Amino acid sequence: MKDPNALYITMMKSRAVTEKIVQRFDLQKAYGTKTLTDTLNVLESVSRIGAGKDGVLAIEVDDRVPERAAALANAYVDELNKFMQTLALTEAAQRRKFFETQLKSAKDRLTDAELLLDRTPNTSLQYMDARRNLKFEESVYEVLVKQFEIAKLDESKDSPLIQVLDKAITPEKKSKPKRTVIVALSMTFAFLVSVLWLFFREKFVKSGRLHELRMRLGIEK
After folding, report:
1. At residue 116, does pLDDT exceed 50?
2. 59-90: per-residue pLDDT in tens?
3. CA 19 to CA 74: how far, in whole Å?
């Protein structure tokens, strides 16, 4: 493929991989979701998987438990490797498996041919046939051995290889919510409360009921 990283990202986001992660960490209970689909949606929303210009894949997961956040990020790679092992055999692997099966049969036939030659008197016509048959089975076996070794070599070349540069570690500080956002929201809330207080204070001052307002708000007893 022109972009193998795109394939890896798609696989890690697939249901086949994410369901394994959900089951592995019992995320339905951890997230408090009712259905598996809801759990998968939450996992997707807290996970970010992408590739940089350098071709290196990066996986980030947000979780309220720091240790679980790191474990989930690492689990994506673990489950991807397991998933890839269960995929359909490659063409080279199919050839390797075919020749492996044929080798077993050829070895059995070769053994039978050797036993037949040993039991046949070397002065008979049957002995000549048995000898020719043994030579034939030996030639077939040698060809299959060579083809089997070639298929194994091709299979090793076709096997995808994923190298982990840096395993995810437990975060030392929160990524969410952002402190600046909390401060901004707090200031906005405080401003709105102040505005409302001034509005009602002015209203009650004009009506001569400021003491009643203070009593309601608990400012005075």
Report:
1. yes
2. 999 999 999 999 999 999 999 888 887 665 66
3. 15
Helix (H) or strand (E) holding 14: none
**Distance in angstroms (rounded) separating the CA atoms of residues 98 and 92:** 10
Torsion angle, alpha carbons of 160, 161, 164, 168, to 10: 20
DSSP assignment of 32-91 equals T-SSHHHHHHHHHHHEEEEE-TTS-EEEEE--SSHHHHHHHHHHHHHHHHHHHHHSPPPH
Q: Which amino acid is at 150?
A: I
44, 66, 123 from 81: Cα distances, Å: 19, 24, 61
DSSP state of 208: T
Q: Is 122 exposed, middle or buried (0-12, 13-18, 19+ CB in 10 A)?
A: exposed
pTM, two decimal places: 0.52
How far is Cα 31 from Cα 41, in angstroms, rounded to an integer? 11
| d(C-alpha 106, C-alpha 114), whole Å | 12
Which tokens go with 1?
């493929």
Q: What angle do CA 40, 45, 50 make, to 5 degrees?
A: 105
